[in-house]
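To whoever picks this up:

The nightly regression suite flagged DUF3396 domain-containing protein as changed. Nothing in the input moved, so I suspect the structure step. Input below, exactly as stored in the fixture:
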Amino acid sequence: MTTIDREMSDEEIAGMVADLNQWPSVAHDNGYYELAVMPFISFYFAADPARHVETGLAMIDVHEAFERLLGAPFKIQTHPDSERPHPYGSKRLGNLREWARKVPRNKGFTFDFTDETNHQSSPTNAGYYWRDSDLGFGGPSYSSILLYYRWQWWLDNRDAWRRFVHDTITRLHPEQVYSGFAMANPLEFGTRSEVTVWDRALAPHFYGLDTDYPFTMKHHLPSGLRSPTWGFFLSDIWREKLSLDRDAVRAALADPRIRIDELDCGQWIELGPQPELYPVENGVPELPVMLNRLLWPLRHTNLDLLGFGEWDGDPNVRFNRRDTERWLARFDDNSNWPSPEVRGLAPDAPRQEPPLTHATGGEACPRTGWC
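Regenerated output under the current build:
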């Protein structure tokens, strides 16, 4: 993609929307690479710098368990030091556990696996692992694991998948976990630019399409939660910020369609038997709204959905600051995302905009007092 051409046409967007209404995990091929909506799960956890080796080894344990679960589909692995991709099993990669012991605590320990040899294309199965350094960069930051897998595979293995999720939560004690559908980030860092264009194009059509990009979100999520679309881990750390006990959470989510599993460090919540894209023409989804009512005091209102800057004159539309806040609030009772007409609001109904909570350099502060 260039900054003078559109990534896709209106007809291509309409075709992708139609395909996703038939099957919730499909790809768009532009002749050079494919970008796809895939089921995912992401784990965000605080890594103790004093135990950086143990954290790295635990992440490798998660990878090996995930690989066994999928049946060893990976073709590419990135080098833990150079981050360059190599054929999986190459001698150049060295021993991953030795790297976990060797990488110092003030340097991030990263390793990725994918079944996609075109680094610009979305993977079908992938695991992206990042143990954060202890440098801080001005504030708290999470370490993260982001996993993708085929939709049909999940349908055929959902019980084994859930056991894996429970085991991983017990192993890592994450503070936040999200699962649902999202555009799958390719291995190549720069292709995130194209992914964000598809994110923005599809978001008005599906309430349940999430966006997940740990590279930047790991710096922002310590300040607040994302709006869950299906699977979500409410850790004891964040539940206590609501001043609720576990029974109160169960009471607030008392619906036979909602599954809550009690784990040692929190509650794993599933909004219905499987993730859904929730096409907007079917109305605002009831179960995400119910969970959102519980979690909204903890929501991050201006999460970075992009992960990079934009260019002047670029014809491709991405999330701006205002639309980001509206999208994050799409499950609120007074939301007008994607429009008042789609939400079934009266044409003359006043627009309920979420208050601005952040300002960029040079802008007026959106609130009086301290910001």
